[in-house]
Each structure stands twice: as structure tokens, then as C-alpha cells.
Amino acid sequence: MRTRPIEGAPSLGLDNASLALDYERISATRQFEAGKLLVSDLGIGPGERVLDVGCGTGLLACHIAELVGREGRVLGIDPLPLRIGLASSRARDNLTFEVGDAYDLDRLPDNSFDVVVLNAVFHWLPEKTGPLLSFGRLLRPGGRIGISTQLKGDLTQLQQILRTVLAEPPFDRYPRIRESITFRVGADELRALFQTTGFLPVRIEVRESERQHPSAEAAVRFTEASSFGNVFGHLPPELKDPARERVRKALGAVAEADGSIVVNTHRLVAIGERR
After folding, report:
1. Candidate CATH numbers 3.40.47.10, 3.40.50.720, 3.40.50.150, 1.10.287.110; the one for domain 17-154+180-211+264-274
2. Can you tell me the distance from the alpha carbon of 69 to that of 226, in angstroms, rounded to the nearest whole number?
3. Which has the closest alpha carbon to 34: 115, 113, 146?
4. pLDDT tens readout for residues 135-163
């Protein structure tokens, strides 16, 4: 359980209904697709018990529930109540959702899961050892953990533009405590984290992918929905729309002929086994 606030940690209080609905729509062709690859890597099958940490609106948890079948079960947790509200519409006999935090899992019993999944979540965790120890406690011996996360040091063109705009006047008068709103790790760091928290690293690799947004506006909405409002959350209300407009303008200058924005990204994918 988190005992004190982490300086520069993303706020969980900036989400709203519009962002949650945007995430539901946008993630279906982005985070969900990456999550299905991670689930395939984990080899999740019938009868298994799976914990989906940071499940968002529940698309991936629903997919996993189909894989584990009637004899399995899936629990999706997320700290954002609005997104769990949307996910709950997908609940079924073998699939449940709860508002939950990776730092506070004491209510869940030891050895109660076969698999823990963190898709597009790990980079949001400021402190990682505590959650990994908790996941190890929840997994049976030999249970698996799968992580798909942003790679340390990898900045997409979209992220570079965001940083450039926010460093310009008048937005520079309101700097974040940390330049980045995420807490990323590299492959060697994640391997070390696995080893020190009781996991055997089975696979750790970097994967490249291409993502396309239909417009600059869509790209901005993606960043806001995926960050649950944190991209511009540090700015005063009167500067948020000007910041969005300036980012849209900068993206327009690098758009494809049809106005779309192509983003090349690298993700860190890791599979570990509880010793």
C-alpha cells in the first residue's frame, strides 16, 4: 500500500466522463490490440484465474474471460471509477471489476491467481517494487506476469511536440514537477526488478509498432484520454485550450497528406514466472 504521495505522480482526479468514453473508443484499436498480443505471449488458457491490473474500460479483461472460459475467472481492477463504471457493463459470471489500486491489494488472498496482466499500465506506477512483490504474493508458484509498457528513453514525435509546446510561453510559467508524467524503465531495469522481487525473467524484448491517428485533433484526444487528463492537467483552466490548439497546429505541420498523424513507438514487453 502506498504510504506517502510520490512527487510528480500522475493525478487520479483529472479523469472525466468525456475522457473515459474517448478511451473506450480509442483504446479499441490501440491498447487493446497490444494487450491481445501480450495475452497471447502469456498463453492464457481455460480454467485459469487472471488479474488484469489497470483494466481501463475492460476490453482486454473481456477478451481474457473468453479464453479462460466458464471454469476460469478474471478480475479487472483500475483506480479510475468512471472507467470501472464502463467496464462493469461487461461483467459476467467469470468476469468481475472493482475500483482498485496496484499499491493496495491486501484484500486479495495469497496464491489466488495464475496470471497477472499489466497492459499499458506499468509506466504509470511511480514505485514498482511494492506492486511487484504484491503480484508475487497473489500468484501461485509458477504463475506468470505479463507487462507491456512504454520504453524508457523512447519519445515519439507526438510526445516531443507536446514537450516543446509546454516549454514555450505562456505554458512554461507552469512547469510540472517532473518533465515526464510517466515512470518508465528499460529492459535491464525491468529484468533486475523481476529478479529482486521473486520472478524469473522468461522474455524481455522491445517491440516497434506504428500507430496512426486520423487527425491532429484525434492525436490530442488520444494523449488526454490515455493519460486520464494529466497531459495538460498541470495548466490553469484558461491555458488548456490554447495549449491544445498549439499542439494541434504543430502536429498539422508534420501530418500526412490526408491529415493523419503517424506515430512510431517502441514498447517493452516482459513475461516473468513466479519462483
Report:
1. 3.40.50.150
2. 29
3. 146
4. 999 999 999 999 999 999 999 999 999 99
Domain ranges of the chain: 17-154+180-211+264-274
Cell numbers 514498447 correspond to 267
Number of Cβ within a 10 Å radius of residue 273: 17
Residue 198 burial (C-beta neighbours within 10 Å; 0-12, 13-18, 19+): middle
78 contacts 105 by C-beta, under 8 angstroms: no
DSSP characters over 59-94: HHHHHHHHHHTTT-EEEEEES-HHHHHHHGGG-BTT
For 69-112, the pLDDT digits (tens) are 999 999 999 999 999 999 999 999 999 999 999 999 999 999 99
Q: Where are the beta strands (DSSP E) in 120-213?
A: 139-150, 199-213
- The C-alpha angle with vertex 150 and arms to 148 and 154, in degrees rounded to 5, equals 145
Strand-pair category, 139-150 with 261-274: antiparallel
